[in-house]
Design a protein that fits this description.
It is a single chain. The chain has one domain: Four Helix Bundle (Hemerythrin (Met), subunit A). The chain is 62% helix and 5% strand. The protein is globular, with a radius of gyration of 18 Å.
Length: 165
């Protein structure tokens, strides 16, 4: 009997693909609001303790999320590239952020539930599974958003509430 219960428990699903996407996009929505809070010049130039400006961190996030989900959905490996030149207007970053949100939503629908357990080498260099790669995308964004929160507070700006995703 215990074996049957354990098998049934291991086959149950904790979270659906749609719920994971909503969680991911909730974090992205919050990060977008952090970007919006930055004064234009500080977005590109403010640093603390040798960390990169928030604009550089956002470029990294943009290089991961959309391209990573597209790679998972299509199987077409592309090199990781965070060296885009979006100029020095925050609006260009927000525009690409919104385009990336649409890219994620579009390609996410092509990921089959059984794919989440598959082993992959995302961007041709990082071993893991589909689900662990997606968790990395989210965790990395949370990490950099936390740095953005510190920057905003140092600038005397109240960041958005972290729990309002």
């Amino acid at each position: 009997m215990d074996t049957l219960v354990n098998k049934q428990e291991s086959m149950s699903q904790v979270i659906t693909s749609e719920e994971l996407l909503a969680h991911f996009q909730g974090h992205r929505n919050l990060t977008r609001r952090v970007i919006e809070k930055f004064p234009e010049e500080d977005f590109f130039n403010f640093t603390i303790g040798g960390m990169r400006p928030f604009s550089a961190m956002v470029l990294e996030l943009l290089a991961i999320a959309g391209p990573g989900v597209r790679e998972i959905a299509t199987g077409q490996v592309q090199a990781f590239d965070e060296n885009r030149d979006l100029g020095n207007k925050k609006e260009a970053y927000l525009k690409l952020w919104d385009e990336t949100t649409e890219t994620i939503n579009t390609y996410w629908q092509q990921i089959k539930p059984e794919q989440f357990q598959e082993k992959i080498k995302i961007f041709g260099q990082y071993d893991g599974t589909v689900w662990s790669s997606i968790f990395y995308f989210i965790d990395n964004e949370i990490h950099h958003r936390g740095q953005g929160f510190v920057y905003l507070r140092a600038l005397g700006i109240e960041p958005p509430a972290f729990y309002e995703r």
